[in-house]
Amino acid sequence: MSSSPKPFEPPIYPYERLNAAKAKAEAHDGGAVDLSIGTPCDPPPQFVIDALASSNAERGYPPSAGTDALRRAAAAWMERRLGVAVPPSAIAACVGTKEFVATLPQWLKLRRPDRDTILYPALAYPTYEMGATLAGCRAVPVDVDDRFHPDLSSISDDDASRALALWVNTPGNPAGQVDDLRAAAAWGREHGVPVFSDECYIEFTYAGEPRTILEHGLDGVVAVHSLSKRSNFAGGRVGFYAGDPDLVQYLLEVRKHVGMLPAGPTQAAAVAALGDDAHVDEQRDRYLRRLERMREILEHVGVSATLPQGSFYLWAPAPGGDAMGLVDRLAADAGTLVAPGDIFGPAGAGHVRVAVVQPDDRIELIAKRLQ
């Protein structure tokens, strides 16, 4: 007689592992300088707040697909900043991109019940794996090379034949690498697997021009974009996905039934944010300056980090490979929190991720404490 399947028990949320280190950091005069989570701390532009407050969109239900104004603004932004032409009909809104990542596998599984696998980089944002788990799918990591680029040749024929989707993320979280999106799109088309490209850090690309998977055609690919990072609007919970018209339309129709509705006022604010590039350029320069400064600070305590190709993270090997030891040391000595690399998968063991999201004076406080 077979045993009954065990009920699902949610794992501990990754950042709760830092509670002990957080207490040490908070004991410092001036409190903790939290560089563990990529939460923007700089303000969004005032015109975004003004649009949020004056939209007159509070009363009725907003369209799940996004307002026509939002879809047009997203299309204009992609053409202006990324050099790709995507019709507004192949663009739809989401309630921030984390919920899109987390719920996508269940919608794809309904569409292809003969498949059961989500592929994602072995070093990655944890929600790619968790989304698969919550949908009852297999979460299969794709090997990464010594520079943390996914090695698509390592995907077995069996996993490819069972795959509902392949996730890629560039510039990458946590390592900040820029991947070959042409190769990812080609792999997906060769194997009949949709490729979803998480491009939320695209505006913070330092190694050349920003790259999107949509440069290589829309067939079989979807790019996912966020207002959270580029416009310091994480609290607004609004983003969008764009690409293959059939995939976008399918997801749009499913998500209507679930009530995935970005709030009307935040959609109006997103239109304002997407229409302006100056505030993003200023933020990009701000993050690059902080990355360079934080790298100097870490070098003084024996931690060597290279500047990323993109994103606002420093990805640093811990001395002796002891990531949690470095987390505790920085909390105790500098009152700062950083994230251990294994939060992003076993491939991240022995590293820490440092998010330079705090204002300049808070980063200088770290330097002062370490003197």
Domains counted in the coordinates: how many?
2
Shape by Cα distribution: globular
* Oligomerization status of the protein chains: single chain
Number of distinct helices: 13
Distance between the termini: 66 Å
Uncertain parts: none
What percentage of residues falls in helices of 4 or more residues? 25-40%
- Shape-level CATH architecture of the largest domain: 3-Layer(aba) Sandwich
Question: Structural class of the helices, strands and pairings?
Answer: alpha/beta
Radius of gyration: 21 Å
CATH class of the largest domain: Alpha Beta
* CATH T-level fold name of the largest domain: Aspartate Aminotransferase, domain 2
Task: Say which CATH homologous superfamily of the largest domain is assigned.
Answer: Type I PLP-dependent aspartate aminotransferase-like (Major domain)
What tags apply to this protein structure?
371 residues; alpha/beta; Aspartate Aminotransferase, domain 1; 7-stranded mixed sheet; globular; 12 strands; Aspartate Aminotransferase, domain 2; 13 helices; 3-stranded antiparallel sheet
Overview of this protein structure:
The protein is of the alpha/beta class. It has two domains: 123 residues, Aspartate Aminotransferase, domain 1 (Alpha-Beta Complex); 229 residues, Type I PLP-dependent aspartate aminotransferase-like (Major domain) (Aspartate Aminotransferase, domain 2, 3-Layer(aba) Sandwich). It contains 13 helices and twelve strands. The strands form three sheets. It has a seven-stranded mixed sheet with strand order 2-8-7-6-5-3-4, sandwiched between helices. It has a three-stranded antiparallel sheet with strand order 9-12-11, with helices on one face. The longest helix has 22 residues. The protein is globular and about 55 Å long. 51% of the residues are buried. The model has no long low-confidence stretch (mean pLDDT 96).
